[in-house]
Amino acid sequence: MNRAAKKLIALFLLDVQKLARALESGAQTVDAWQQQFSQALARYHTAALLVGQGNTALTPQGRRYLGTVVEAQIKYLNNFAVEIQSAEQFKPGWLARSALYAQGIGASWWKGATKMLPLPAMPRDGTTACLGNCQCAWSIEELDGDGNYDCTWVMSAAEHCQGCRQRAADWAPYKIRDGRVA
Fold first, then answer.
1. Where are the domains of the chain?
2. With contact defined as beta carbons under 8 Å apart, do 44 and 6 qualify?
């Protein structure tokens, strides 16, 4: 991920902490927290996708992607809100759980950075044990011909979960030909 993506994540983390502290102190209701958090999810996922693709034009494909990913995140957030609502007091682990949402915008950045290619997963998309903390990356090699790519799941120097190790083995390379998975 680039510096701009990391900055977006850091900004979202600050917003998450601010929202959690307001909730913890009683300055904000769970309903207000949930509404503001939902709005932040949409805003930051959109920003991450745009930063990843390197421009400010949201394509129809990008809109569809954002609709799907934000809807899924809001479903998780709704379940989280129910848990908070039913608790007698604020739990310290909720701040860490909230932070995972901020880390997850990295998947939207990767979606934009990989040109919305039909890849099976994105780093930080929450589909491995790494969840939103995944440090892997896609390496994209554009080949001759329109829509031809060799895409490789690359692990960083960090420790990796079994899911990421399997992806690195299986997707070396992941082939896209004529814009479709080969």
1. 1-115, 134-182
2. no
Give the pLDDT means over successive 10-residue stretches in the chain (182 positions). 94 95 94 97 98 94 96 96 93 90 95 96 90 89 96 89 94 96 94
d(CA 182, CA 176) in angstroms, rounded, equals 5
Rounded Cα distance between 109 and 170, Å, is 23
**pTM for this model (two decimals):** 0.92
Edge-to-edge, what's the strand order for the sheet holding 137-142? 137-142, 149-154, 174-177, 180-181
Q: Which position has the token pair 């895409």?
A: 151
Taking the alpha carbons of 34, 93, 105, 64 in that order, is the dihedral positive or negative?
negative
91 and 31 Cβ atoms separated by less than 8 Å: no
